[in-house]
């Protein structure tokens, strides 16, 4: 069957809250391509993300597009929640320095609360 399975495309808007001092919370527009593999619990992702309203410390705009890619490992997958750890490479705007774009390595953890799975789809039989 091969290493890779059918890819999944996801529009994933969100909010980013950095832990660094002085960093602001931003809106994140993100499109994800997830490529499941035949290796249990491993998915390869390719992400394009954009912080449309981000400013840099000098008062200018810091809203350039970033490209993120790498492996995602699912550690826990239950009916009500899931937990992943990601080792991702990001190619995006440099915070400092002479380069407009730079590579960074990011470790990301994702917690998912599966609200749809938690809700019962069974009716009570009364109207």
Structure description:
The chain is mainly beta and 127 residues long. It has one domain. It is built from 1 helix and 7 strands. It has one helix spanning 115-118; strands spanning 8-11, 14-16, 26-36, 42-50, 66-77, 81-93, 101-113.
In short:
This protein is mostly beta strands and 127 residues long. It has one helix at 115-118, and strands at residues 8-11, 14-16, 26-36, 42-50, 66-77, 81-93, 101-113. Strand 5 (66-77) and strand 6 form a beta hairpin.
Task: Give keywords.
127 residues, mainly beta, 1 helix, globular
Based on Cα principal axes, name the global outline: globular
Beta strand count: 7
Radius of gyration: 18 Å
Q: What's the number of structural domains?
A: 1
Helix/sheet category: mainly beta
Terminal residue distance: 48 Å
Order of helices and strands: EEEEEEEH
Largest β sheet strand count, sense and barrel closure: 7 strands, antiparallel
- Low-confidence spans: none
Q: Proportion of β residues?
A: over 45%
Average of pLDDT: 82
Give the helix level as a range of percent. under 10%
Number of H- or I-type helical stretches: 1
How are the SSEs ordered, and which strands pair?
Layout: E1 8-11, E2 14-16, E3 26-36, E4 42-50, E5 66-77, E6 81-93, E7 101-113, H1 115-118
Antiparallel strand pairs: 1-3, 2-3, 3-4, 4-5, 5-6, 6-7
């Amino acid at each position: 069957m091969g290493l890779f399975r059918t890819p999944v495309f996801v529009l994933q808007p969100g909010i980013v809250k950095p832990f660094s001092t002085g960093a602001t919370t931003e809106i994140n527009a993100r499109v994800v391509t997830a490529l499941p593999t035949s290796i249990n619990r491993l998915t390869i992702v390719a992400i394009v993300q954009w912080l449309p309203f981000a400013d840099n410390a000098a008062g200018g705009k810091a809203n350039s597009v970033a490209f993120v890619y790498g492996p995602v490992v699912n550690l826990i997958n239950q009916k009500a929640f899931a937990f992943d750890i990601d080792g991702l490479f990001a190619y995006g705007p440099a915070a400092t320095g002479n380069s407009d774009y730079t590579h960074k390595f990011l470790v990301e953890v994702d917690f998912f609360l599966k609200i749809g799975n938690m809700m019962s789809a069974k009716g009570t039989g009364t109207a």
